[in-house]
Write a structure and sequence with these properties.
The structure is a single chain. With about 375 residues, the chain is α/β, with parallel strands linked by helices. Helix content is about 45%, strand content about 10%. The chain folds into 2 domains: about 5-90, Up-down Bundle (Chorismate Mutase Domain, subunit A); about 105-365, Aldolase class I (TIM Barrel, Alpha-Beta Barrel), CATH 3.20.20. It has an 8-stranded parallel beta barrel, surrounded by 5 helices. Strands 1-2 form a two-stranded antiparallel sheet. Helix 1 (about 5-40) crosses helix 3 (about 65-90) and helix 7 (about 215-220) crosses helix 8 (about 240-250). The protein is elongated and about 95 Å long. The protein binds phosphoenolpyruvate and manganese (II) ion. Manganese (II) ion binds near residues 296, 322 and 332. Manganese (II) ion (MN) binds near residues 126, 296 and 322.
């Protein structure tokens, strides 16, 4: 090798180390500024200040690099310093598995949900329509070993002229039927102003897809001590869904169950698209139990069995399904609810036997 090159390379090596030392010193000073800004609640990003620094650098630039190159090099340095500041300020989210490594077990009365416990089935009609209808469904599902009964009294409907639910009377009807059949009652709450009535009648608050980001409602439920089943929004990202759960935990309620219920995609053969990776990811990223609502995700009776198996195979802690004595005349979701005979066949075909003990371990080894 030409001796001149060896000599120049040695100079470059020294300059590299000098630059690294200077960059590290600069990063420490930037981090000190970042800490003061965090304390004062100020943003770390100050575009005016960045432009001033870039102008000063190009003014002082005597070459050989053109001004644009100097600017882009320094912008990289600014960005790296800002990211470093953000790393330090990283929030520890209560929903995150890195904050709480162990699975959370949600207790609904005497029924444990999550972790190594057997998958739980929530069954019942889409809407509470009458005392007779609720009594028939509650009696049937309870006789098949179901412990959690669902039924909406306040229904979020697309069409304002369609059946909106029986309201508080519906909650009373649901409560009475659940008491008669030793069932725990799950019902959707749409508005924080209904909280007192729900506290009196239900065992689990359901937050529907359309209210996943109703932050006032989430904060109110976060102050309750009853479990919350949080459905994923129709077009919500996994992060938005988990952040909605964070609202509940941040107010002190850690009895939260996540529920994937299908998201809106281009597909039209199904009502929504069941996002199985979201179920698996929610189990990895959070410590909360995760359910799959097989009725609303596919919107098709012929998908109930395969979607149940798929959900449990990716680690779901339970399944939600809609059952109605006569789905053809149901006041909501009449295409998707199943009658008692179909429900019995569903139980036989899925992982549940009549006592609702899980056969998941037998089938999948976990
Ligand atoms: C429901 O479970 O009754 C319901 C309305 O579901 P979603 O909020 O998932 O649409
Ligand atoms: Mn429904």
């Amino acid at each position: 090798m030409d001796e001149r090159i060896t000599d120049l390379r040695a100079q470059i090596d020294t300059l590299n180390l000098d630059l690294l030392r200077l960059l590290s010193r600069r990063a420490e000073v930037a981090a000190a500024i970042g800490r003061i800004q965090s304390e004062a609640g100020m943003s770390h990003y100050d575009p005016v200040r960045e432009n001033q620094m870039l102008d000063a650098l190009t003014d002082a630039n005597a070459g050989p690099f053109p001004d644009d190159t100097v600017k882009s090099l320094f912008k990289q340095i600014f960005q790296a310093s800002m990211h470093q500041g953000q790393e330090r300020a990283k929030v520890r989210y209560l929903t995150s598995r890195s904050t709480t490594p162990a699975d959370t077990v949600v207790m609904v009365g005497d029924v444990p949900i999550g972790s190594q416990h057997a998958p739980v089935l929530i069954a019942g009609p889409c809407a509470i329509e009458s005392r007779e209808q609720v009594e028939a469904v509650a009696a049937h599902v309870a006789a098949r070993g179901v412990r959690l009964f669902r039924g909406g009294a306040f229904k979020p409907r697309t069409d304002p002229y369609s059946f909106q639910g029986l309201g508080e009377e519906g909650l009373r009807i649901g409560r009475e039927a659940c008491d008669r059949h030793r069932l725990h009652f799950v019902a959707e709450i749409m508005d924080a102003s209904d909280l007192a009535a729900f506290e009196e009648h239900v065992d689990v608050f359901q937050v529907g897809a359309r209210n996943m980001q109703n932050f006032t409602l989430l904060k109110a439920l976060g102050r309750s001590r009853k479990p919350v089943l949080l459905k994923r929004g129709l077009s919500a990202t996994i992060e938005e869904w988990v952040m909605a759960a964070e609202y509940l935990l941040s107010e002190g309620n850690d009895q939260v169950i996540l529920c994937e219920r299908g998201i809106r995609t281009f597909e039209r053969y199904t009502r929504h698209t069941l996002d199985l990776s979201a179920v698996a990811l929610a189990k990895i990223e959070t410590h909360l139990p995760v359910f799959v609502d097989v009725t609303h995700s596919g919107g098709r009776r012929d998908l109930l069995v395969p979607l149940t198996k798929a959900g449990l195979a990716v680690g779901a802690d339970g399944i939600m399904i809609e059952v109605h004595p006569d789905p053809a005349v149901a006041l909501s979701d009449n295409k998707q609810q199943i009658d008692f005979e179909t429900f019995d066949r569903y139980l036989d075909a899925t992982l549940y036997d009549t006592k609702l003990t899980a056969k998941r371990t037998e089938l999948y080894g976990f």
